[in-house]
Specification:
149 residues, alpha+beta
């Protein structure tokens, strides 16, 4: 007996009712990973009411950033994120450097984290007003970066 896979009933894997399509979760789409990462960080900033979110590689090179992040602050942050994530003892010293760009920045407003994605070690920083939400935002951004890379 010959079986044709296109004639088999497939189980429903969608959460949408039968016959209805699942709405697209993304508002913007691109095949370019660096642009997709920018879109991801922009969405995280919006969803968690952050001021800025940056993704940096081990060489402190900016991989992606939320579009509203001021350039001078973004560059300073990108240069310090890897060290802040790996050597927390120097955090206050690095915060002083960042305060040259953002004088009112407090320690609670900045969250940093190291992670792996796409075979690379990356670092992420989120700047917002609520420490707990910054941590949740970082988790969301890491999940998105891993999916994209």
């Amino acid at each position: 007996m010959e079986v044709h896979f296109d004639q088999l009933d497939r189980p429903q894997t969608s959460t949408a009712p039968a016959g209805e399509s699942v709405p697209e979760r993304r508002r913007r789409r691109t095949e370019r990973p660096e642009l997709a990462l920018g879109y991801q960080l922009d969405q995280v900033v919006r969803d968690f009411e952050l001021r800025c979110c940056v993704l940096v590689d081990e060489d402190a090179r900016l991989v992606a950033a939320s579009p509203d992040c001021p350039t001078s602050f973004m560059q300073a942050l990108a240069g310090l994120v890897p060290t802040m994530a790996v050597v927390p003892q120097h955090r206050e010293q690095h915060l002083e450097t960042l305060r040259r760009q953002q004088p009112l920045l407090t320690a609670d407003e900045l969250a940093v984290c190291a992670f792996r994605a796409g075979g690379r070690r990356l670092f992420i920083a989120a700047v917002g007003t609520e420490a707990v939400m910054n941590e949740v935002a970082i988790f969301r951004a890491i999940t998105g970066a891993r999916r994209i890379l």
